[in-house]
Write a structure and sequence with these properties.
The chain is α+β, with helices and mostly antiparallel strands and about 950 residues long. It is about 40% helix and about 25% strand. Helix 22 (about 605-625) packs across helix 27 (about 760-770) and helix 29 (about 845-855) packs parallel to helix 30 (about 875-885).
């Protein structure tokens, strides 16, 4: 229901048609002077029936300006205001007349509104309205309206239409309800704010939008309304259809019928939730709007041929602070002062000569400072054509002159603000206006085809890669908004469906260099006469934010996978450590049996089988330790190209003849800090994985390059922005589904048939990469192959040459070795091996026993071979005490996995000799000789 209709329904119970009124005497004889005055007045005059607001009279000046004639009263049929007043101004003008009728002092009330002339032209008018006739009980019967055409005194008509468009784009809710709380009207703004359609709420109680704790608020407000008070800008909280609490500002006014009875309440509700956050950024448009719409006092008077006042209006009296008896019959100099009279005399003489006068002039009035006035003097001719007096309409424009200067400064500040804004601000024009009743898809096509950028600031030009706005203005919409992008078409669809008003919606556009850029947009379309003529908007570059969001989403997925792998890794490392101790005993005893059995012994075959199985178990343990990051690395600065070239020498037998090997190595590749032997293990496992993915042959590609990772391009939030060395291994095999990619690094997970693999290859790769402070990513698609990208931090050090591992040999000696091991079986087996190799062995089961032996042993102890983790005293502390007693002693540590006592993050400290369990007699012999000789 329209608010104007609701008000008319209540206020117009005794409504009379214009046809019936035209048959009556328009003004009673007692008002003959007023009728004569208005018929010849230079300003427009309209008389309304106070109950129905139907016109009962208008003067010839109104007919001349509006194009309507008195006989048109018959055609209005009670809809005069709806016909001649712009729809935007209807609600304010009804409120205005309500105040006029309620004013018991019959003061004049002013209002600005747009008049729709008979030919369709729009004019800005200022009306001064008052009740001039009341009934026996004081009820208002007729209202007189003196109207001035102020269109020419505004800045420009376009400025007002712009301001009007801003007001029409407002999303404020306007609600009308009765005193029982029943909702009688509900506009589009209310639908947008509260989420209910008019059909859902009309007839419902207004409490539907009240939080429970705010219900008492309505009672207090209604008490104020019944007491004759208005509630303005009352801030409170309301609730939407979807249960959201929103901050609102209320302006509440009483609505009365023609008898002056309260029949309901009108509410204007503004959603200020966002406004409270961005209040400091609001443009000065609202302030300018208030300045323009502020009332300017106007004086109406009639002066006869003796220069005496015969009629003055209330505004005249208020302005001079005089009563009617102080003015009527007095000559002009007595009222305005002799100096002011002399200033105006040339204009007065001209009007008595029959010439209408329209002018602006500074005047020194009596007892007042210098005032600027705008005046219209219209001669009043008698039947013989002689001027018997004149009508004077005088407006004090002193404040207006001041306001003009303030407005000019405001406009200048506004323009400076626009140019300094970091957000892009623009205006889009159309070659031809687009009818808004067309299909949405057709409107979208026309916007793309006819739209061009008519205005923008430099900030917007910079967003597209241009130096200034001059380079961008004039470009067609399709030159920067990607027309073939479904997202952008959906963007324009939202704009149209939202009644050409869109907030914070994203678009994908194109920069000068051809790259995509993401924007968050605010748009408002200007619709005139049912056609879209232009659009205004702001936009903010959110490209970096979008990239960061994408990186964050990938990072979250990686973090979840990494957390799961970390937990499995800790479990695998712990199991492998204990298993190493068992294997160490088995391997030492098996090798000792081999050394002791004659060559022809039939037991050698069984020993060989046991050794083979034990070696396989040891390899599996090493893989588990690698996955759990428990392998002790011996890294140094390396150029990965050297490692890849060494690996390729042994690659062909691994992948077979039907797979093509491609190398793309960056000749300018930087240096990273890794263990070359472990990197070869990584490449080996990835090659085996690729071979199994290409059963019918294919391409195996290894690539190296330098890369930089920043906060927007990183794929895991744990990866610090830095320079990296990237090793990329690719195949064009069968590929993997996403569900398999999520588990490929888990130990013992495999898609191969039983007996075809342990599922530890990629787990080993993951452990080595993470222990080397690297990152690994996998991308795969069914039928298109798989790509592994490994990234290690780049360092600024020269590279060392990759060394080959020394083959295992059996070396003997005769030195004295102090062996300390808390596992008895390992200790006994190791003692037996060392004795067989010719060494003299002192054995201890823990550190305290070893110290006692060293204190009592007077001869040199050439080597301390000790476990790292033992009860009572660890290996490092033991080595320090032994060195104090026997400075000549070399130290060799042994352990099932690295420990922080001898290694930091799995990397051996300089000059530390170490042998990992399990070990063969040959490896033990070799490590003992290295430690003794170093």
């Amino acid at each position: 229901m329209k608010i104007s209709s609701a008000l008319n329904l209540e206020m117009g119970k005794k409504r009379t048609s214009a046809t019936e009124i035209s048959k009556e005497i328009i003004l009673p004889e007692s008002n003959a002077f007023l009728r004569a005055f208005t018929e010849n007045a230079p300003f427009m005059t309209v008389v309304y029936d106070a109950g129905s607001l139907a016109p009962t009279y208008f003067n010839r000046r109104f007919a001349e300006i509006s194009g309507y004639e008195f006989r048109d009263l018959h055609s209005f049929d009670g809809d005069f205001l709806e016909t001649v007043v712009h729809p935007h101004d209807l609600a304010p003008i009804f409120d205005h007349f309500e105040k006029v009728c309620a004013d018991r002092n019959d003061d004049a009330h002013e209002i600005y509104f747009k008049l729709i002339c008979k030919n369709g032209e729009l004019l800005w008018l200022k009306a001064s309205d008052k009740v001039f006739r009341r009934g026996a009980n004081g009820e208002p019967l007729e209202i007189v309206s003196f109207i001035e055409d102020v269109s020419g005194n505004k800045k420009t008509e376009l400025d007002f239409f712009k301001l009007g468009a801003i007001v029409e784009a407002s999303n404020d809710a306007i609600i009308f309800k009765d005193f029982d709380g029943k909702i009688l009207s509900w506009n589009n703004g209310a639908e947008k704010i509260f989420g209910y359609t008019a059909g859902e709420v009309i007839g419902q109680n207004i409490s539907i939008v009240f939080p429970i704790e705010r219900l008492a608020e309505e009672v207090e407000i209604l008490e104020k309304i019944r007491a004759g008070q208005n509630v303005k800008q009352y801030e409170t909280v309301r609730i939407t259809k979807d249960g959201r609490y929103i901050d609102v500002s209320l302006t509440i006014s009483p609505v009365k019928n023609s008898d002056g009875e309260l029949v309901g309440v009108s509410k204007i509700v503004r959603d200020i939730s966002d406004f409270k956050q961005v209040e400091a950024k609001v443009f000065e448009n609202e302030r300018r709007l208030h300045l323009i719409t502020d009332s300017i006092p106007a004086m109406v008077s009639y002066i006869d041929d003796e220069h005496r006042y015969q009629f003055v209006n209330r505004e005249f009296l208020n302005w001079w602070s005089l009563s009617e008896k102080d003015v009527i019959g007095k000559k002009m100099p007595e009222i305005i002062g002799a100096q002011a009279y002399q200033t105006l005399l040339p204009r007065i003489e001209a009007v008595f000569a029959g010439e209408e006068q329209n002018f602006e002039q500074p005047v020194n009035y009596k007892n007042l400072d210098l005032r600027f006035i705008r005046a219209n003097y219209v001669p009043d001719f008698d039947v013989q054509g002689k001027v018997r007096g004149y009508y004077a309409l005088v407006v004090d424009i002193s404040e207006h002159k001041t306001a003009e200067e303030a407005l000019r400064q405001s406009e200048e500040r506004y323009r400076v603000f626009i140019e300094q804004s970091s957000e892009g601000i623009w205006r889009l024009e159309l070659d031809e206006p687009i009818p808004i009743d067309l299909e949405i898809d057709e409107q979208i096509e026309l916007i793309f085809r006819n739209g061009y950028l008519a205005e923008c600031n430099n900030a917007m030009a910079h967003q597209y890669g241009f130096d200034n706005s001059v380079e961008l203005v004039g470009k067609r919409l399709g030159e920067f908004l990607l027309t073939d992008n479904d997202h952008n078409r959906a963007h324009l669809r939202k704009f149209i469906e939202a009644d050409y008003h869109l907030s914070e919606d994203e678009s994908i556009e194109m920069k000068k260099d051809g790259n995509d850029v993401y924007f968050s947009n605010n748009m408002v379309g200007i619709v005139e006469d049912g056609r879209l003529v232009r659009a205004w908007g702001t936009q903010r570059d959110i490209t970096a934010t979008k990239q960061a969001q994408q990186a964050f989403q990938e990072s979250e997925a990686q973090l979840r996978q990494s957390t799961k792998i970390e937990a499995i890794g800790r479990l695998a490392g712990g199991i492998a450590h204990d298993f190493n101790n068992f294997l160490a005993v088995i391997m030492l005893h098996v090798d000792m049996l081999n050394l002791q059995l004659p060559p022809e012994s039939p037991l050698r075959f069984r020993i060989s089988e046991i050794k083979s199985v034990t070696n396989n178990a040891a390899e599996m343990v090493r893989q588990l330790l690698a996955f759990g990051r428990k392998t002790t690395l011996q890294p140094h600065p390396v150029v990965l190209n050297q490692v890849v070239k060494e690996f390729v020498k042994i690659l062909r037998p691994i992948v077979g003849e039907d797979i093509e090997i491609q190398l793309h190595l960056d000749s300018e590749l930087g240096v990273c800090f890794v263990d070359p032997n472990q990197i070869i293990q990584v490449l080996m496992n990835l090659a085996v994985n690729a071979r199994d993915a290409m059963p019918s042959g294919g391409v195996f590609r290894v690539e190296t390059k330098n890369t930089n990772i920043d906060r927007n391009s990183r794929r895991h939030k744990a990866q610090p922005p830095a320079s990296y060395i990237e090793l990329c291994v690719t195949d064009n095999g069968i590929g993997m589904e996403s569900r398999i990619q999520e588990r490929i690094f888990e130990p013992f997970f495999t898609t191969k048939e039983s007996g075809k693999g342990t599922g530890l290859g990629l787990a080993t790769v993951y452990g080595i990469v993470k222990q080397s402070n690297g990152f690994i990513w996998v991308e795969s698609e069914i039928g298109k192959g798989t790509e592994f990208r490994v990234q290690f931090p780049r360092i600024d050090q020269p590279a060392m040459i990759v060394k080959k591992e020394t083959p295992e040999t059996i070396l003997r000696g005769n030195e004295t070795i102090l062996l300390v091991e808390d596992e008895e079986k390992i200790r006994r087996a190791a003692v037996e091996v060392l004795v067989v190799l010719g060494y003299q062995v002192l054995e201890a089961k823990h550190g305290e026993e070893a110290v006692q032996i060293a204190e009592n042993y007077t001869k040199p102890i050439h080597l301390l071979l000790t476990d790292v983790v033992m009860p009572k005293m660890n290996g490092r502390d033991l080595s320090v005490k032994i060195k104090k007693m026997h400075p000549e002693t070399s130290i060799l540590f042994m352990s099932g996995y690295d420990d922080e006592i001898i290694a930091r993050h799995g990397i051996l400290e300089d000059n530390v000799q170490f042998i990992g369990k399990p070990f063969s007699p040959g490896k033990l012999a070799l490590k003992v000789r290295e430690s003794l000789e170093n």
